[in-house]
Amino acid sequence: MKKIIAILLSILIVLSLVACGASESTPTEKAEETKAVETTAAPRNDTETAQQVDTSAPENGEKVLVVYFSANNYSDVDTVSSATPMIDGVSATELIAQKIHDTVGGEIAPIIPAEDYPTGYNEVADQAKNERDNGDRPAFTLSVDPTEYDTIFIGYPIWWYEMPMVMDTFFETYDFSGKTIIPFNTHAGSRDGGTYDDIRDLEPNATVMDGYNVTGGTDKATVDSEVESWLSGLGY
Ligand SMILES: Cc1cc2nc3c(=O)[nH]c(=O)nc-3n(C[C@H](O)[C@H](O)[C@H](O)COP(=O)(O)O)c2cc1C
What we know:
Blueprint: H1 2-22, H2 27-41, H3 47-52, E1 64-68, E2 86-87, E3 90-91, H4 92-104, E4 107-110, E5 112-113, H5 121-134, E6 140-141, E7 151-157, H6 165-173, E8 180-187, H7 195-202, E9 207-208, E10 212-215, H8 220-233
Parallel strand pairs: 1-4, 1-7, 7-8, 8-9, 8-10
Antiparallel strand pairs: 2-3, 5-6
Helix pairs in contact: 4-8
The structure holds flavin mononucleotide.
Flavin mononucleotide (FMN) is lined by residues 70-72, 83-84, 91-94, 121, 124-125, 128, 157-161, 186-190, 216.
């Protein structure tokens, strides 16, 4: 009889151990685990996730600023005779700036020259050439202090094969040591014109990435999709 009771007890112990092993995760825990994986696996721009994310603050706490200069973002412009092609009322460089801001978040601010440029191409071309030949440093205003940010996207058009001179004023005004600079620019054939290396020379203690450039006048859908994949390659 004692033997039978001992056998029955052993069977009971084995059964209860098996039951415990199977219930390592409660149904709620299982659901939580599944939810966590789904959240991690959800694409960056998943609509539901995007609605919950405050685009003014990137998720990792990184402070991001998008600054850009474009001769057309502050003047009343005749779009036919203007110095640069406008797309849906937005200049080429500004279009990229807005797309970066929409995707990454953070702040966005234009670099506004103290003096308006003319709106006709020949007039802007003459003024820009004089500035370059004279080594001018045109004054500008900016509504934020860019050195308060970790990562600064900086945009401009190519003028006379290089950055507009106001960008030299900009880089000489601020010390971006320890910051990450991500340039972008528009052009009519010069691509980046060696300007990313120029920025490296001007800001030797910053990390200056290779940027994105596109021909001014490229349609918005193309710019949007190119900028998206460029940013995705940078981890945004
Ligand atoms: C004064 C001036 C000089 C320019 N010089 C060049 C140049 O050397 N190389 C080039 O590829 N494009 C040049 N361009 C074309 C602009 O880079 C191009 O139109 C750009 O998209 C303008 O950007 P925005 O619309 O944001 O101002 C020049 C345009 C202007 C107004």
